[in-house]
Amino acid sequence: MARRSFSLMLAWRYLNPRRAMLSAVTLISVTGVLLGVLVLVVVMSVMAGLEKEVKERFLGYMPHVRLEFVPFGGFREPLEQWRETAEAVTKVPGVKSATAFMQDYALLDVEGKQRPVFFRGLDTHDQAQIDGITAMLDQKDHPGSSADMGLDDRIVISSIIASQFKVGVGGKMSLYSARNLESVKQVYDITAHPPVREEFGPVLEKAKELIAKPWTKRGERLYLSDAEADAIYLPLFDIFKQGVRDPEKEIITKALKPIDDGEQVEGGGLLLDAETPKKMAAALAELDTTDVAQMDAAILKGIKELVLPKEATVIGVYKASQMALSPDIFMPLPLAQELAGMKGAVQGISVRLHDPYQADQVAGALIKELPQGWRAITWTEELGDFSRLIAQQRMMMYFALSFIILVSAFSMMAVMFTVTIQKRREIGVMKALGAAPGQIVRVFVYQGMILGFVGAILGTAFGLLVIRFRENLQEVLRQFGFDPFSSAFVGFDTLPAQIKANEIVIVAIAAFLLCSVAAFVPAFFAARSDAAKSLRNL
């Protein structure tokens, strides 16, 4: 006990050799540790807060589990009778509500300025989704914003769109369906083709020759073997599948119908009506008389009616973040269905849970309850890339900023080396009086431990203080024209923060241990010095 008290007493004396309030060496050493811990505590809390706030925003409007019908394992199929499935889904334990899911792209036009936008349709009868949008509204820059879209053509836009197009609450926007634009492109490609009689002339001539040949008679009907039927049918069906005009498709369908109506013969072949060759020849002859200009004019006239825009009124603006992708526009489900060309159908079922963090377990239960062909996508999968990005950013920040504490530890090591050199005579005297090497090591290790402990405690305290008054600090910085966390980028007026006690404790302990190790190295070499040489040289 006496030895421990001796080492500790001497450590305190070396930290404050002139009996002043604080020595310069002590102050510098503690400040280095303090700043390192402070920066790490603030950065960790801010990064955790950003992740938490962005996730909460997403969970306010996005489905916790999205159900899609993929009977063939590929692309999802539209759901027309989705309400019955949604009602069955709500009976699964853990499910809070189930409603329609709809999202797509459209072309936005405001006074001649256009850009593609990503929209999401909301079932306005689901109050939870409306509340999620309401919590995101930007009442500061766009007062009067509301999420009460009803079933009308009223929309809520992101602050990014509002800024780009200089549109606020009450503004008007025109929305063109991207699906209709795809149809326009398809029609344009079709009208660029020559008529079928020119593009597939040799195929049609071969089919006419086969039709004109004598067919085998069986009583009052005609017989075609499978090979003969395929020789006529398959080339014409291949033309039908090409990008040809609708009137030409109708003619080819008329030519193929007699074979489709044929009676299968046991053992192979078809029995056909005696007038089949004449009907097919007459149908194919119509392809020689089609008016290309007239067909194209009819197609283009129909497209002109198809691409009429929907004019929507902006009733709210929500604060968007550049950190993660979010919909440009929220709109009522009927408007979203119309723009997506779904005609009353939906893309899937949006399932909200009592506990979003149980999404994986509930998704498994849903798949067991539903028939084969359904697929469940959880919000953790949807936000997988974002979560990994945030986690990677946090790790990179921790890695980079941890060097501040490491540099502080090396600085403390340099200070301790200087102190041991200054105290060589005293160390020699202590060894000459019988002080054990362990006592001498502990003198300087205790110094490092005290500095590390005080620095970690003060750094943690000041870090929590900065987090507590971060809004005031942001306002001060903004008054000087410096805003490192612009609300236009992060999507929050006040930088969010979440204090994680376990992470803060780990940082404080790491700082304490590094300082202790840093002090041990010079203490070890000091304890090994020869007492006689130390006394003789000084």
TrEMBL record:
Swiss-Prot/TrEMBL keywords: Cell membrane, Membrane, Transmembrane, Transmembrane helix
Please give the superkingdom of this protein's source. Answer: Bacteria
Q: Where is the ABC3 transporter permease C-terminal domain?
A: 399-529
Domain MacB-like periplasmic core: from-to ranges: 26-173
Q: Which residues cross the membrane?
A: 21-48, 395-419, 440-467, 504-527
Q: What is the first-listed, main subcellular location in coarse terms?
A: membrane
Fetch the InterPro entries from UniProt: ABC3_permease_C (IPR003838), Lipoprotein-release_system (IPR051447), MacB_PCD (IPR025857)
Where in the cell is the protein located?
Answer: Cell membrane
Q: How does it sit in the membrane?
A: Multi-pass membrane protein
Record family assignment? Belongs to the ABC-4 integral membrane protein family. LolC/E subfamily.
**What name is this protein filed under?**
FtsX-like permease family protein
| Gene source species | Luteolibacter soli
